[in-house]
Design goal:
globular; 8 strands; single chain; three-stranded antiparallel β-sheet; 45% strand; alpha+beta; Archease, Possible Chaperone, Chain: A, domain 1
Length: 152
Amino acid sequence: MGTGVIRNKKQPHPKFEVLDHTADATIRAYGDTLAELLENAAYGMISLGYDPDSVSAERLLPLQVEAATPADLLMAWLKEILYLGETEGLAFALVQAEAIRSLGGFAAEGRVWGQPWADTVRRRGAVVKAITYHKLSVEERDGWRATVTFDV
C-alpha cells in the first residue's frame, strides 16, 4: 500500500498519513486536540478499506469510551467503531468526538454516521480486522499525534 496524505485546510499538518508496513496497515493521525486526533484516526482507519465519501450518513450511532491514558483511549475508541461497524453491518461516513480529561483518566463521547454495506460503497483495500498495540504511540506536543497499526 502506498503512502497517502489527506490535508486539513486549517493546519499545516495532514489529518493522517498511511505508512508502509510489511503485513499490516499503519497510519499516523494528527489533531490540534485529543478529540480531533480521535476523529482523524477513525477516519484513517475507515479510509483503509473504503472511501467514506461514498457512504451516506443515514444512520447515527453514539460512542462512549473511557481509559487511563490517551493511547488506551485511542485504542478503545477505534475498537468501538470497528465493533459497531461489524455488529451493525455498517460502513461509516462521518465520525465526531469530544474528549474529556478527568482526574482518573480520559473519556470520549461521540457519534458515527453511516449506512448498511451496499454496492455504492467504494472499496479501497482490505477492511480492518483489528487494531494492534504494535508500535502504538500517542503524544502531545504542538498538537496531538498518534501512530496506529491495523491488522487487515
